Amino acid sequence: xEEAKKGNVRYPAGQLTEGWIGGLVLEAVLKGxxxxxxxxxxxxxxxxxxxxxxxxRGGPIEWSKENHFRTxxxxxxxxxxxxxxxxxxxxDWVAYDVK
Length: 99
Description:
By secondary structure, the protein is an alpha+beta fold. The protein has helices spanning about 1-5, 15-35, 40-45, and strands spanning about 50, 60, 70-80, 85-95. It is flat.
């Protein structure tokens, strides 16, 4: 949080996760393409992406030649706990294959 304050970030950190994940994927693609990257190398790298989502998505983000979204999607279910007056995890991460 201190780094966010130093950088004058105006949004709550919880709202920035999609950009962070996108950055992780972009980093993996560019590293996989090597230097100098061209369209063919980037395409080849995108066909073999595996990125650790660092707990933000329940599992890794994996792309294949046929699928540049995710080969598996992860869901976690939350509920409101009135006794704690807080959101709690009702069901932890569940993985589903994307077809």
